[in-house]
Structure formats: structure tokens, C-alpha cells
Amino acid sequence: MSGNYIKTAYSKLYSVSKGMDKTSLYTLDEYLSASGKKPRIYKKSEKNVDIVICKEDIPDVNLLRLGRSFPSALICSGANIPVSLIDKVKKQKTFSVIGLQKYLFFPQMETALNSCGFETLNLGPLRDDMPVCEPLLRNVKYVFLDMTSVKHSDYPWDGNENPNGFFANEICQIARYIGFSCDLKAVFIYGVPENGCPNVCSNLVAQVAWHIADAVANNIYENPQAEKQKGKLPDHFEHKIVDFCSHGDTLTFIMSAATGRWWMEVPVIKKNTTELVACTANDYQTACDGQVPMRWLYYYNRLNAM
């Protein structure tokens, strides 16, 4: 069974024990058995992130019992996006699809996702600036990662017919950003053959799992929105205010000196308040250059939609 080989390969990786302190690696059958009939409840004393090695196809979302609210992300090429997952997340506030290859992605699906207020990130812009995916992953609870989003030459399984896609090192970079999510509960890795998986593919899956676990072990939890509601941000959060002199408007950014994470304040007009939205240093630089960041405009429209 490929899942067992991956678990063995994972356990042999250097310094994996530190990541194991806060993560558990399961096959899908083991995870479903451990979950029982109710959504999983995580206690502070328990390992708090599950890495689940699934089979060729994305698992039935209804079997996973993710609960009522599950901010999530899908890492895939855009081919064969599961309709069952899209139907399940329609009522969620946070969902994104990362790594899309435009020629594999139906325009109707993109329209459907955008109409729900969900974000999509194509492979080209992502490859040019890998950290751009981090804000989309910062507060997700669940991630579905399709290994066939990796190009065939780097993931040479017969069932992977994708000539383009992520390089092996890029999918490991994505895995690290996943592990740095402040709310992560589980990662479901699929596109893994149940039998006959080449060793190089199994080893790559194990290394993806390692990057998630290592990031979880070294992560620093931050929630400036909650700290702000208490009345004062801790000292390691720095305010950066950009003044658009010609218009008399300002944009406020917050940067964590502890982690390098960035947020921007977006007004919520109907509530007469602001919401902190995850962003990158490039968004701040864009504002400094006199332009309103596209991510700010996206969330301004989304948060103030009638």
C-alpha cells in the first residue's frame, strides 16, 4: 500500500520528530476511523494538525465531517475540480483555488467561484512570486492538495498526465506555507495511487508532509484582529500608514516584526468598522508607489457588497 510506504519514508526524514510533536500522519482509512461519526474536536493537549494521505481521487467531503464552518483551500491544476467540494463550500466565507493552469480550467467554473467571492490564483503569477499564496492560506482550517498539480517529470506516476505544473521544490514551498496557517486542522493529500506508486512519487509526498509538519512545529500563532478588539496591539505589530496625498485618503497596514506577516485594514462601511485582511509586503509596496492594491479593492468590494 502506497500510504504505508509514504509513512515509512516520512518517518525516516531528518528532524521529523519535531514536526511529529504537533502533527499526525494518517492514511484516509485511518483518519476516517479515528474521526468516528462526529466532527473531530481538537484539544490543546492533542496533536493539532492531521496530514491525511488519500488515494487517487479527492475524498468524499461529506465523509470527512469537517463541521459547519471550514475555511479551506484547494491546490490543483484546475483539471477535474470536484463539483462535490464546490457545492460543499458555497456557503463558506473563505475558499480559494491555488495553482490553476488556465487552459485546464473551465471559465464557467471560474465565474461560479468568483460569484461566491472566492479567490483563484493561477500558476504563472504564483511561480513569479511564491509568497503571494501565503495570505490565501494563512487562516484556512483545511487544505486539499492534488499531487497531480505537479508536472509529470517531477511526479512520474502513470495516472499523472500533466506535462506542466508545479516543480517538486515548488509544491514543497506551498506545503510550507500551508503549515504556517494559524488555524490549520488537516491537510488532505490526494492524487496518490493506492498501489504501484513509484518510489520517487512516494518520497515526494513524504517530503511534502515533512514541510507541512516542520512549518507547523515552527509556526507562531498571530491574530491581530482579535488583539485589536481587545484594545491594543502587542508591540511587535507595527503600523504602516500610506498617505495618498492627491486624494486625501490613507491605507493602513500592519506588519509583524516577529514573523514578517502583513495585514491591511479594509473599511466595512455598513458596520462602520474595519477588518484586517492578510496581504503581502508587495501590497504595501504597491500602496507606497501610489496605487491601491488589487487585494484591497477585492476585499473592499466583497466586504461592502449589498
Quick structural summary:
With 306 residues, the protein is of the alpha/beta class. It has helices at residues 2-11, 16-20, 28-35, 61-64, 83-89, 107-115, 123-128, 134-137, 168-179, 199-218, 224-229, 281-288, 294-303, and strands at residues 23-27, 49-53, 72-75, 95-100, 119-122, 142-146, 186-190, 237-244, 249-256, 262-268, 273-279.
Overview of the molecule:
The protein has 306 residues and is an alpha/beta fold. It has two domains: 2-218, Arginase, Chain A; 224-303, no CATH class. 36% of the residues lie in helices and 21% in strands. Strands 1-2-7-6-3-4-5 form a seven-stranded parallel beta sheet, sandwiched between helices. Helix 1 (2-11) crosses helix 10. The termini are far apart. The relative contact order is 0.13.
Observed structural traits:
alpha/beta; Arginase, Chain A; four-stranded antiparallel β-sheet; 21% strand
Mean pLDDT, to the nearest integer, reads: 88
Number of structurally distinct domains: 2
What overall form do the CA principal axes indicate? globular
Return the CATH architecture of the largest domain: 3-Layer(aba) Sandwich
List the helices and strands and how they pair.
Elements: H1 2-11, H2 16-20, E1 23-27, H3 28-35, E2 49-53, H4 61-64, E3 72-75, H5 83-89, E4 95-100, H6 107-115, E5 119-122, H7 123-128, H8 134-137, E6 142-146, H9 168-179, E7 186-190, H10 199-218, H11 224-229, E8 237-244, E9 249-256, E10 262-268, E11 273-279, H12 281-288, H13 294-303
Parallel strand pairs: 1-2, 2-7, 3-4, 3-6, 4-5, 6-7
Antiparallel strand pairs: 8-9, 9-10, 10-11
Helix pairs in contact: 1-10, 9-10
